[in-house]
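=== RUN LOG ===
request id: a7f3
mode: sequence -> structure
chains: 1
length: 114
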Amino acid sequence: MEAIRSTAKVNQEIHFGGTLLNLRLNPELVATKQGQATLGATIQALFSLGAFHVQFSCIFSDTLRKAQAPPSTDRRGQRPDLKKHSKNSGTGHSRSIPSAAERAADRAAFLRFI
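=== RESULT ===
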């Protein structure tokens, strides 16, 4: 809450487009209705104090570390050809356009997440 109060004290009128507060939250915080209500109240408090913009990142540190690691297989279960992704390989485009079924599965997974 101290970061929110400090950010709200910044004079928003002297900064073109306002300022941005970027907060990283533990995903478990917003996993329950109570956590979501608390987050909503926090956002309302921030704006009532005069802040302009807030952005939340809700992800575990382990997930970010895993995303940085090179992939062992792609979504079709095939090992990626790392030579295709090198700087000297022409366009570097090696991904195929996902099928409608793959897009639907991705969409369903995303909707389960939120």
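=== NOTES ===
The longest strand covers residues 21-25.
The chain is about 40% helix and 10% strand.
=== END ===
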